[in-house]
Design brief:
Helix content: over 70%
Radius of gyration: 25 Å
Strand content: under 5%
Number of helices: 11
Structural class: mainly alpha
Oligomer: single chain
Number of domains: 1
Largest sheet: none
Length: about 325
């Protein structure tokens, strides 16, 4: 699976990296612009808080800062959620052609991925909701019992409840993981089979049945490998900010203005955004690519998809593209 994912990434890096770079780059640009606008809007208010009042500011004076930060967070979550959903839809679109060894253009990837993006969002939301429900119900029950015990004045009874909560969490967490793996193929199914979220979840459960541990192990390895490579990419950028003389707060006045703070830490924040963007290109592409190959593999094993792919590849495969990745699964 990992070899097939790297092979597909190397062969189709232009549409995969191009799509991810375009989307996450645009999302990062939107967040940076929103950050600049928010910082400019509250810079004067920040200067007034730090210069006029020697003591701690009142809660009412912090309201504009809280509003600016909240709006910035909402914008960031929305744009990155949308970008991630389109990328997660684009990976199976590319893989759909990769298993047949056929080329695909950026415009085709974009149009087909965008047409399935809302189903992808719905599928991911339902999967997370289903996986979280057991944990949420258990934690709600423990919290309710704890509040009831405290209201009765029995403080000694809180400690056993906390212990029960910790033990129960360890017992319920595997159920959440089991459900998550059971439905992990659903986003790929949404694209490959044009299914709606609920139908994709049922289809994923059907394909994973009998091969849960294999899907879990390969998926876990893919996410762990992507996280390690992403952290390795970010590390050099983080080390630049630690170099002597870079972004040294000692060079600032004691009563630095908001503009001076932005000028000092703007470079560090820019490096952080760039490193996050580069790392995200790999972490957003590689795990869905492995999961997509797992989907193809499960269909080949359970539904004899191999001859169909081989026949389609033989009928459509140009010589210059070589054997399709499906032949190596």
């Amino acid at each position: 699976m990992l070899s097939g994912a790297f092979s597909t990434l190397g062969r189709y890096w232009k549409p995969l990296i191009g799509m991810a770079l375009t989307l996450f780059g645009a999302a990062t640009l939107v967040v940076i612009l929103a950050l600049v606008v928010a910082a400019s809007a509250v810079a004067t208010h920040w200067d007034e808080l730090t210069s006029d009042s020697p003591g701690s500011p009142d809660a009412a004076e912090l309201v504009p800062l809280g509003i600016a930060f909240g709006v910035l967070m909402i914008i960031g979550v929305i744009v990155y959620l949308l970008a991630s959903a389109v990328v997660q839809a684009a990976v199976p679109v590319v893989l759909q052609e990769a298993v047949l060894g056929r080329p695909i253009r950026f415009g085709t990837v974009w149009s087909r991925a965008w047409s399935r993006v809302w189903s992808i969002i719905g599928t991911v939301f339902l999967t997370g909701l289903i996986a979280i429900i057991p944990m949420a119900l258990f934690m709600t029950a423990i919290a309710g019992l704890t509040i009831y015990t405290v209201s009765l004045g029995d403080e000694d009874g809180v400690v056993p409840l906390i212990v029960i909560g910790l033990i129960g969490t360890l017992l319920v967490a595997p159920v959440a993981v089991w459900l998550w793996v059971r439905f992990s193929l659903a986003p790929t199914i949404v694209v490959f089979e044009n299914q709606r979220p609920v139908a994709a979840l049922r289809r994923s459960a059907q394909l994973v049945r009998g091969s849960w541990w294999r899907v879990f192990g390969v998926g876990l390895l893919a996410y762990a490998l992507a996280s390690m490579i992403g952290y390795t990419i970010q590390m050099p950028f983080q080390m630049v900010g630690l170099l002597p003389g870079m972004f040294d707060p000692a060079d600032m006045d004691a009563d630095a203005s908001g503009g001076e703070l932005i000028a000092l830490f703007g470079g560090l924040m820019l490096l952080s955004f760039i490193s996050q963007l580069i790392a995200q290109l790999f972490t957003a592409i590689f795990p869905p690519l492995v999961v997509g190959l797992l989907y193809v593999d499960r269909r080949m094993r359970a539904e004899n998809l191999g001859p169909v792919l081989a026949e389609a590849a033989g009928a459509t495969l140009p010589e210059q593209y070589g054997p399709p990745p499906a032949a190596h699964i």
